[in-house]
Design brief:
Length: 629
């Protein structure tokens, strides 16, 4: 068992593993502990549904491709009432509100397989994973000389031995019964609804049409809204509520035979036969949120700080967003890059989103059981109709496409462009020099803790003065690139096409050059050919800043608000992590790839007049999916 680590993550589920992965990709020393033995824990069931914004985030930490090989990808939905197919239904709105993403589908992959992929990625990036270790106590020493201020005691559940781990920070991602939250005396505010829901995964036979289309729902007069979802490996998940009047019938010690009986009743009038039942559960719906997501050196994430029903499938999606919001901030702070105020933005951004999920879940979980909350819905509408209307009105948020953060230290109110600060930066199609094949922006803006600065040049015949002004600022000693750590990935985005970028622009490009062949990328960000513009995307893809092309000083002032002057970092150099991630295969077809070579780069800016140069590996081939130097 490790004795000293920068960050200890308690909880080996998706949220804990993704938190560890996000830190490990930055070279941070991290260990994840899990009290269960995963090989003996329920292998299937639990979280499975993933939405587009979550897939975008997973793609940027290089785990999505592996998941896509296993997951059931759904682009279709059908609803049944009284055995008759209806064109519209409760979850029909998923598939007509998927605009603005290249992940225009939803997927189901059971948690067992997600965890295996995340755990492998964690360990490949230098993180450690220990199972069967249970948290016993947390002691904080504010006067610790070496900054390892937390002493955590854990017990090996297999041997009974106790161990002491020293760490700088502790992340509790250990579920709704979180030991980290309880030991930190953080209140879990909310209540239990009294609603009980069934969930089961099985291999089934049925005469229901389109049983493998992806997602379906059945309106049952007994069980209310019944969920039917296709899973990986030919499995189907069936979910429904247990009405209070049936609770006595099944009792507290419900058996698998009774669950099968209830499922057959729930999907009537269709037949249902079971070949294999992998997993089933009957659970009570609670809706709670932690009073704080941070107490000094302890953070909470995922179900440890927000708990709700699975009605909208938000559990793993919200947990992933917690993990990948926290990890880049904590990692950068530990490297000495940021003021501590950056850590405060984790709760500022994620707690309101957790509360919003819970507020929506109170209405949703009631409607799924067939109850219409007071003041909800149209007069005379049935609970099924009200449920469909409510889901449609909240679906963009459920998909993660409307999840955004308010103006804060990291999200500066923009005065140009169409995308507001705090919203995800749109993924757009670009081309490399000379290539006729497009690639997505997200493929070259991977999340390794660096900020991505996108310079939309506009037409240089119209923007030449602004380009020269920006180049002059970047090359000058007052530039933030000369004062701050090397955490910036610059991309120059040129409209149309040109045989050579520097000559066409009349200046040295900023980072690597990409071409916006049909000018759709600039259009999505709201920049014209006459003005161009500059966008800063945070490591998690959220737009932090948007400004005019010639406003180099203003761009620098944005970063100087929270990035500290260059320091000697005790952590693994970020350039090394970038090079390692670049070297990994991407699974894409390589048309004209070249070998990796090292070129001089001025803090990520290919300036022809730059004075300070560092060697950062650059890959020129079209299959690159990592950070562009």
């Amino acid at each position: 068992m490790i004795e000293r680590v920068d960050v200890l993550v308690c909880g080996g589920g998706p949220t804990g593993l993704l938190t560890g992965l996000g830190l490990a990709r930055q070279g941070i020393s991290v260990a994840v502990i899990e009290k269960c033995q995963k090989s003996e824990q329920a292998k299937f069931g639990r979280a499975s549904l993933l939405y587009p914004r979550t897939m975008e985030l997973l793609d940027q930490v290089d785990v999505w491709e592996h998941m896509a090989e296993i997951a059931h990808i759904s682009r279709g939905y059908v609803n049944y009432n009284g055995g008759k197919r209806l064109i519209s239904g409760t979850y029909h709105s998923i598939f007509n509100q998927l605009q603005g993403t290249y992940f225009d589908y939803v997927v189901n992959i059971r948690q067992k397989y997600s965890e295996e992929i995340f755990r492998k990625a964690l360990e490949e990036n230098g993180g450690s994973f220990y199972e069967q270790y249970e948290l016993l106590s947390i002691v904080q020493d504010d006067d610790a000389a070496d900054d390892y201020a937390l002493t955590v005691r854990v017990k090996n559940n297999a041997t009974g031995e106790e161990h002491q781990v020293k760490c700088k920070y502790l992340v509790g991602a250990d579920g709704k019964k979180s030991a980290v939250r309880q030991l930190s005396e953080i209140a879990f505010v909310g209540d239990d609804t009294g609603i009980k829901w069934f969930r089961m995964d099985a291999v089934v036979k049925t005469d229901m049409p389109d049983a493998r289309v992806g997602m379906a729902s059945i309106e049952s007069p007994i069980y209310g809204h019944v969920l039917w979802m296709c899973q990986d490996h030919g499995r189907t998940r069936i979910g429904f509520s247990l009405p209070p009047k049936l609770a006595d019938r099944f009792g507290t010690d419900i058996t698998e035979a009774q669950v099968r009986e209830a499922a057959r009743e729930a999907v009537a009038p269709f037949s249902l036969e079971f070949e294999t039942v992998d997993w089933w559960t009957l659970y009570s719906v609670g809706q709670r949120v932690a009073e704080t997501f941070r107490r000094k050196r302890v953070f909470l994430a995922g179900d440890a700080c927000h708990s709700h029903s699975s009605g909208a499938g938000q559990g793993m999606n919200a947990g992933a967003q917690d993990a990948l919001n926290l990890s880049w901030k904590l990692g950068g702070f530990l490297k000495g890059w940021y003021d501590e105020s950056v850590l405060d933005t984790y709760e500022e951004e994620r707690r309101p989103e957790a509360q919003r999920i819970i507020d929506q879940d109170k209405t949703l979980s009631a409607l799924i059981t067939g109850k219409i909350p007071e003041g909800v819905g149209r007069p005379g509408a049935t609970s099924f109709e009200v449920l469909g209307d409510f889901i449609a009105s909240t679906m963009r948020y459920t998909l993660g496409l409307d999840v955004h953060y308010e103006t804060n230290l990291l999200n500066q109110k923009a005065n140009i462009g169409l995308v507001s600060a705090g919203w995800p930066g749109p993924d757009v199609l670009l081309r490399r020099p000379g290539s006729r094949i497009s690639l997505r922006l997200h493929q070259v803006t991977k999340n390794v803790g660096r900020f991505h600065v996108l310079v939309f040049t506009g037409n240089p015949a119209l923007t030449g003065e602004s380009l020269r002004s920006l180049r002059s600022y970047m090359d000058g000693e007052d530039s933030f690139t000369h004062k701050l750590p090397d955490i910036f990935n610059f991309l120059t985005i040129i409209p149309g096409d040109a045989p050579q970028s520097d000559h066409y622009l009349g200046i040295g490009r900023f980072g690597k050059a990409f071409y916006d062949s049909d000018m759709s990328a600039a259009c999505k960000y709201g920049f014209s050919a006459a003005l161009g513009g500059v966008v800063v995307l945070r490591p998690d893809g959220i737009l932090g800043y948007s400004g005019e092309l010639g406003e180099g000083k203003e761009l620098g002032e944005y970063f100087l608000r929270f990035v500290k002057a260059s320091v000697e970092s005790p952590q693994e150099p970020i350039a090394k992590k970038v090079a390692e991630i670049e070297s990994k295969p991407t699974g894409e077809v390589e048309f004209d790839g070249e070998t990796t070579e090292t070129k001089p780069v001025a803090n990520g800016v290919n300036g022809v007049h730059a004075d300070t140069q560092t060697s950062i590996p650059i890959r020129e081939g079209p299959t690159e999916t990592s950070v562009a130097a």
